[in-house]
Amino acid sequence: MDRAVVEEVCSLKEARKKVLACVRAQSYEVIEISQACGLVIAEEIRAPKDIPPCEISLRDGYAVSAGDLSGGGSTKALRLTGAITTGDKTDISLTPGSAIKITTGAPLPGLADSVIPYEDVEVRGDLVFPMKPVIKGQYVLRPGSLATRETIVARRGDILVPTTIASIVDTGKAFLKVIKKPRVGILVTGDEVVEPDYHSEDMSVFCSNRYLLSALVKNYGGESIALGIAPDDEEILASILEMEHLCDCIVISGGTGKGEHDCVKNAWRRLGIEIIFDGVLMHPAKGTAFGYKDGVLFFSLPGNPLASGISFVQLVSVALLKISNKEFESPPELVATLAQSLPAGKDGTPRFFWGRAVFQESELTVWPLGLEKTDVLSQISKANCIINVEVGAKNLPQGSCVAVHPVCLSSNLGYLTLFGQ
Q1: Residues 87-124 as b or e (16 or more Cβ within 10 Å = b)
Q2: I need a surface site. Which of 40, 113, 209, 308 has the fewest CB within 10 A?
């Protein structure tokens, strides 16, 4: 990318714009449809024919012609002349005054227009006696009622959810073109950071950021790749980044400040990574930085997990969605009502809080988490969204309306999440 080196603190809106300007569209791959849930489809799918192609029975029972019954009523016996089961290819037809035994999903015989369920008839030998009036067309699925020929079942760019996949299977497609998952390398920095199975009495810090960021990568449709833990050494950090990781994006946690141990940007300069911005006007995570080289996006996020997650949702998520051909200028958001007040912040800087939102009496209500400086981890573990307090907002009393960005860490469709208890 041919642009002069820019190292500046910018607004969150400007930061997102700069990130999105660097994103390259991802190529596609062909996969088996059972593996496609949550991915973005790269082709248009149309029904090749009417679905179903013929009249289908919706119940186990008897195929009949309603006209054979007096006024559609139940005053006439019908003679049983055959049977059709699901999957049969048959050219048999009803004869006047007859009925044919049929199973759910089987094609109706010729001249039949209705199905009587087993429980609505009495059978005596080869005679069938309807016990209720028969309405023409009852329990029959008409040709093309699910989809007519050339109906668009899925559009290029759609996110493949279970119902979409089921609809595509009904067209006979077994393999799909989908946008490749963005590959995101996650590198944690810090001399004090250790793996979770490391046991020590010193002041070591477990690398919880890696697991938080990995979950968020999955949440926004990506594939995370652990690049390990790097010490506070710009030369070692540069050597790790210089390796061929085949990543579309690399996220570094820690080293965003200006102290002597904050060596991320120095490592970037060693490698010729262009620093697009170095700091964002937001709280927390003001130290977030972004770089670019040879099509790879580089993010430097705070070492504090709570701030790191917020920075990821506000900036990295929009990049991952655009790589997957789903472009958002900002994280998708909903409007919620505050269940408790929020303190005032600095004018000119948007503030973000982890929150838990639930629907109550058809209204989305959100509780800010972590405001009390005790048991913060147990509070944040319940989070399913991030609360956005706009620039210049003062104290927000209970009942105020705020924007919330859904974050469901149990799903890779977090940007579509509906809140629940």
Answers
A1: eeeeebebbeebbbbbebebbbbebbbbbbbeebbeee
A2: 113
- List, in sequence order, the alpha helices (H) in 246-375: 264-271, 305-311, 317-323
What fold, for 32-51+146-179?
Answer: Molybdopterin biosynthesis moea protein, domain 2 (3.90.105)
* 324 touches 158 (CB < 8 A): no
Residue 207 has pLDDT above 80, yes or no: no
The confidence band for 142, taking pLDDT boundaries of 50, 70 and 90, is very high
CA dihedral 258, 18, 305, 342 (to 10 degrees): 100
pLDDT-based confidence at residue 331 (cuts at 50, 70, 90)? confident
User: Is pTM, for the whole model, over 0.85?
Assistant: no
User: What is the third-level CATH fold of 10-27+181-323?
Assistant: Molybdenum Cofactor Biosythetic Enzyme; Chain A (3.40.980)
Residue 313: DSSP 8-state: I
Conformation bin of residue 267: beta by default, left when phi > 0, alpha when psi is -120 to 50: alpha
Contacts of 314 (CB under 8 A, 6+ apart): 12, 16, 282, 285, 330, 331, 352, 386, 405
Instruction: Measure the CA–CA gap between 260 and 278, rounded to whole angstroms.
Output: 16
Top-confidence residue, 262 or 362: 362
Q: Based on the number of CB atoms within 10 Å of its own CB, is 397 exposed (0-12), middle (13-18) or buried (19 or more)? A: exposed
Encoded amino acid at 242, one letter: E
Mean pLDDT, rounded, for 188-213: 70
More confident residue, 143 or 416: 143
Mean pLDDT of the chain: 85
Domain with CATH 2.40.340.10 in the chain: 334-416
Domain 56-141 in CATH 3.40.228.10? The answer is no
Residue 262 binned pLDDT confidence (cut-offs 50, 70, 90): low
Q: Looking at the domain that runs over 334-416, which CATH code has it been given?
A: 2.40.340.10
Q: Tokens for 316?
A: 């990295």
- DSSP-based three-state secondary structure for 65: coil
CA distances from 322 to 21, 22, 186, 290 (A): 10, 10, 19, 16
Instruction: Spell out the residues 6+ positions from residue 306 whose beta carbon is closer than 8 angstroms to its own.
Output: 284, 354, 370, 376, 380
pLDDT in tens, 283-322: 889 999 999 999 999 999 988 888 899 999 999 999 998 9
To 10 degrees, what angle do helices 234-242 and 264-271 make? Answer: 50
